[in-house]
Structures are given as C-alpha cells and as structure tokens.
Specification:
By secondary structure, the chain is of the alpha+beta class. It is built from nine helices and 20 strands. The chain has two domains: 394 residues, TIM Barrel; 37 residues, no CATH class. Strands 9-8-7-3-2-12-13-20-19-16-17 form an eleven-stranded mixed sheet, with helices on both faces. β5 and β6 form a beta hairpin. α1 packs across α5. GO terms for molecular function: 5'-3' DNA exonuclease activity; 5'-3' RNA exonuclease activity.
Length: 440
C-alpha cells in the first residue's frame, strides 16, 4: 500500500481535524481594494468524465467567457487524470457536443475511428488547466463529488483542490456516512499538506438528509443553500423544510446548544447540461460564490472561504459587507431598474431549540427534519433599499442576511425564483463563549 494511503489510514484512526475553525465572522469589512479582490466561481460542475454532456475544455471556456474567475470540476467519484477514450455517439452530449468541440478547438481534438465508432480522447484536468489558467484572471481547480448513499438515499459531497480520488466511505447511518467522508478528506489534507475543503451537496435531493443528520457532523463547515439543479427541492415541500430553513436549524443548534462552529451556505450550479440554454435542465450560470481574497489561487480562495469572507448568489451582486461586534451591514451593487429587499435573519436566545420528531401512521419516527419553533430563523429586520444595517439587541445567537432583487432569475432552477444573495452568518452577543473558540 502506498505511503500516502497508510498516512490516511493513520489519520482517520486518530480522528483529528485539520480544517480551520474560526469565530463566525471576526470584525471585518469585505470590500474590494487594498490588495483584495472579489472572485466569482462555481464549485459544482459535471462533464463527460461522469454524467455531464460536454467536454472539460468546452465547459471551462463557457465559464471563462461568462465572466467567472474560477471553476471547480467535481465529477462523480472520478478525477480526470487517466487516459480515457469515449465513443462520440454514446456520450450524453453526442454529436452536438463533438461538433461544437471541433469548432472551438480545431487543432486540439484527438480522435480515432469514424462513423458510429468515432472516439475522442477526453482531455485530462492538467491539460485543460494548463491551457486555460491565467494568473489573476482565471483558475481551474480539481475536485470530486464523492457520491455515496445510505440505504439508497443519495449522500453527495464535493471536495475542492483534491490530489487523489476518495472513494465513498459508507456508514451505518446518514450522519455517519457524511462524517466518514469528511474524515477521509481531512486525512488527505493532513497527509499531503494541500489545502482542501469539503461541502455537503443538495440536502433535499431525494430528501435524503435532515437537519439532524447534518448539525452534529464534525469538520463539516459548508453546505449548498442554493443548488441550480431543478430536482433538488431548494424550497422543500409540505413535509420537508427548504434549504434555508435547514440552515437556520443547523446554525441555531450548533451555536445555541452544541457549541459547534458555524455552517456556511454556498450557491452552486450543479451543471450537467451545456446545450440548449435556457431550458429546464441542470444548466450553468444559476448559482455561484463570490470570494474576497488577496490572490486567485486555491490556497487563497480556501482560506477566505474557511473564514467566511464570501457571499453566495443567484444573481444579486454585493459591493460591501461589514461585520463588527455591534452588528452587520450590507451594501448592494445595484442594477438600474431593480429594487432590493434586505432581510436580516437570526435566532434569539429565548427561542425554544427543541424539535419535535415526525411520526407516521404506524407511530414510527420518520426520517424527516423535526418541527421547530418559528423563532428559529426569524426575520429580525427588513429593509427596502440598497443598503441596510442590523444592530445587535443582545440576545441573538447569530444573524445572517438575505437580499432579494425585484428581478426574476433569467434561468431559474425553480420557476418564479428571484435573483438573490446570501451573506454568511455572524455570531451574535448571545452565542456561548465556546462557540467562539471551538475546534473540531
């Protein structure tokens, strides 16, 4: 067994954590300038290497040409690092993707055979990165979507800046499956010294993951509050809460009851379909993160993400985010003709944090997020305008902000969605002291 694998096994055995844990937003002003820049990126992308319908290089070109500064490829349980030939006729993109590839990259495509036997060599990540990476302008990052399950329930997690593929780890429960995969990522990061992070994907895909499954996971600090795939139920349904509600339950429990670190919310595409845009498929350009960092490198991006120096968006652009011990302030980079609603969302220390399990007709507890007080994730203040501030009143566990534009999303995952942005939570004055200094 390679030394690297032995180091991973040893690390998992002792159960350490290497991910940076910090207080939920130390006082800071997030604004471009003085060596800091905003970098827009997508952290969930699929290609012909798994179940996407286009080639790595074509996808990289699309995001670059749409004004993104970074992109993470996250194909299912595979890294684009081996020699792989595919029959054009049998790829999801078929002849359409092939013809577009030949047009965009006339002297790049390696092929063999003809007719129904025509094959193309899939370019590896390093080849595409060498062609597209442009210091300070555009960056491709290698990732993997670890696609696991528990009794058929899909449990998917994206790893960013990965070095070696991590196979699904499994577990005796949904919670344990998530935690085992997190530990495998931690182990690789520790063994290699390479900065990398992991995030939980689309918790409502198949309604596989409840707030209770997620809230006690050690080492997990990111999840998708918005996913652009039309089948992931961002808004939930009559029985299952939406992802924002899950976020608030997790935050309230981790901060108010468990003394655990913050959970940050990401927005992503989960792109699979790159032709016939717009349509009702899982397409690019629906959700992204905007990270404030001092340079466009994986290391700088990961450091900023781990410290909450970013916001998530499905269309709204922010100019400035200020956090201090007294409150939270947001300023929108407004688009002419649009109006904005800024809502400050949080949970107060007087709120009952105990949830009630849901039982079926047989009296058995169902695998559904418990029912909690409406005080968890209540709107504490609402402002119509392009700038707003929330001042702590003394009893908040945390406060986050949601900004909604009057403009509809041009290509939404759910019909009728407006363009939005989500500001990461800040610990409030009622947060227990251990929440400020906890290390997993």
């Amino acid at each position: 067994m390679p030394a690297f694998c032995l180091r991973i096994l040893a690390c998992v055995a002792v159960g350490f954590s290497t991910f940076t844990e910090v207080r939920g937003h130390e006082p800071a002003v997030l604004v471009a300038g003085d060596g800091q820049s905003w970098y827009k990126g997508n952290m969930h992308t699929h290609s012909h290497w798994s179940d996407g319908d286009d080639y790595l290089e074509a996808i990289a070109m699309w995001y670059r040409d749409q004004g993104y500064q970074f992109l993470v490829f996250t194909d299912h349980n595979v890294l684009a690092e081996t020699e792989k030939w595919v029959k054009v006729a049998k790829t999801k993109g078929g002849r359409k993707a092939y013809d577009k590839l030949k047009e965009k990259f006339p002297n790049w495509v390696e092929e063999r055979g003809e007719g129904d036997d025509l094959e193309v060599r899939l370019r590896q990540f390093v080849e595409v990165a060498d062609r597209f990476n442009n210091p300070g302008e555009y960056l491709l990052v290698q990732g993997e979507e670890i696609s696991d399950n528990h009794h058929g329930a899909p449990i998917h997690m994206n790893v960013h800046n990965i070095l070696e593929r991590i196979p699904p780890q499994g577990g005796r429960s949904v919670h344990e499956t998530i935690e085992n995969n997190v530990r495998a990522v931690q182990a690789q990061r520790e063994a290699t010294g390479q900065p990398m992070i992991v995030h939980l994907n689309h918790p409502n895909f198949g309604f596989a993951i409840t707030a209770e499954d997620l809230l006690r996971v050690r080492g997990e600090k990111f999840f998708e509050v918005y996913n652009g795939h039309p089948s992931v139920h961002n808004h939930g349904d009559d029985e299952h809460p939406g992802t924002e509600r899950i976020w608030d339950i997790v935050l309230a429990q981790r901060i108010g009851a468990l003394g655990m670190p913050m959970m940050y919310g990401l927005a992503v595409d989960d792109g699979h379909s790159y032709h016939n845009i717009p349509s009702r498929a899982s397409e690019p350009g629906r959700g992204w993160v905007v990270v404030l960092a001092n340079e466009l490198t994986p290391e700088a991006l990961i450091e900023s993400l781990e410290h909450g120096r970013f916001y998530a968006s499905s269309g709204v652009k922010l100019k400035r985010i200020a956090t201090d011990h007294d409150g939270l302030q947001v300023e929108v980079d407004a688009v002419p003709g649009e109006t904005y609603t800024i809502e400050f969302v949080g949970t107060r220390s007087s709120t009952d944090l105990v949830g009630q399990p849901i039982t079926g007709d047989d009296g058995e507890v169902r695998h559904v997020t418990h029912r909690y007080s409406d005080g968890i994730g209540e709107v504490l203040k609402k402002v119509e305008g392009t700038s707003a501030r929330y001042d702590f009143e003394g009893d908040e566990y945390y406060v986050r902000a949601r900004i909604t534009s009057s403009a509809l999303h041009p290509n939404p995952s759910d019909v009728g969605d407006h363009q939005q942005a989500w500001v990461q939570p800040s610990l409030g004055p009622a947060a227990p002291e251990e929440a400020e200094h906890v290390h997993d």
